[in-house]
Design goal:
Length: about 230
């Protein structure tokens, strides 16, 4: 009996030892099966999506926008070919509107009045500051521009927000002399060597035109609109 009891005790100890080893191994495997979670940084938010492509303007929409900004002082030119065009002319990611117009009868005093809510300027008279690494000697004095009776102009409305020039809050207007020409197409400002050499702060869309049988483009200087002949 003593010998059998010793064997049983030995078997029991062995079983207990195996159980202990198995438990430790199971615990180790369990720990290996549950790795410490690694925190993944949240992806950075990319730039906002560009504004949705807006529908082409209708003549009724253009006439409404013209009246909203310029009242009844201007009339849309009734001529063959394109008399209005849209694009981001001042580089603020909002769509702008340019229209060929002329003064309404008897409205010249209102158009040139000091209380007018728009800026009158001449596309042939402008100033572009040189790059910051150059010294500015003096800023030329640019005389105030005035609209003449029967003069054909380019009226520009700067857009606001995602709806651009259609937004009721879009009320910043320009009347540009020597810019009402045959509207040809749009293009990126960076595509013109002359503009790249000016080191303008914004990239914009420019309006290619044919004026007095000579091709050129109208562009935003950062402060005003200017006309530049095409190279060649």
């Amino acid at each position: 009996m003593s010998r059998m009891w010793k064997k049983a005790a030995g078997y029991g100890a062995m079983i207990a030892l195996l159980a202990l080893v198995s438990c430790k191994q199971s615990t180790r495997e369990g720990r290996m099966e549950k790795p410490i979670p690694v925190s993944t940084p949240a992806p950075q938010k990319g730039p906002e999506s560009p504004s949705p492509q807006l529908a082409p303007p209708t003549e009724a929409e253009v006439a409404s926008a013209l009246h909203r900004v310029f009242g009844d002082d201007l009339l849309l030119e009734q001529a063959q070919g394109t008399v209005f065009i849209t694009g981001d002319f001042n580089g603020d990611d909002a769509q702008d509107l340019a229209m060929i117009v002329h003064p309404a009868p008897g409205k010249l005093a209102d158009i040139n009045g000091e209380l007018a809510n728009w800026i009158i300027q001449d596309a042939d008279v402008y100033f572009i500051a040189p790059p910051t690494n150059q010294h500015v000697v003096s800023v030329p004095v640019i005389p105030a521009a005035k609209v003449k009776e029967g003069e054909v102009l380019l009226a520009i409305i700067h857009g606001y927000g995602g709806q651009g020039w259609r937004d009721p809050q879009a009320r910043q207007g320009y009347l540009v002399k020597n810019a009402a020409a045959t509207l040809l197409r749009l293009g990126p400002s960076i595509g013109e060597k002359a503009i790249r050499q000016m080191h303008l702060p914004q990239r914009t869309e420019i309006i290619y035109e044919q004026r007095n049988k000579k091709k050129g483009f109208l562009f935003w200087t950062g402060q005003a609109y200017a006309w530049h002949p095409s190279e060649g």
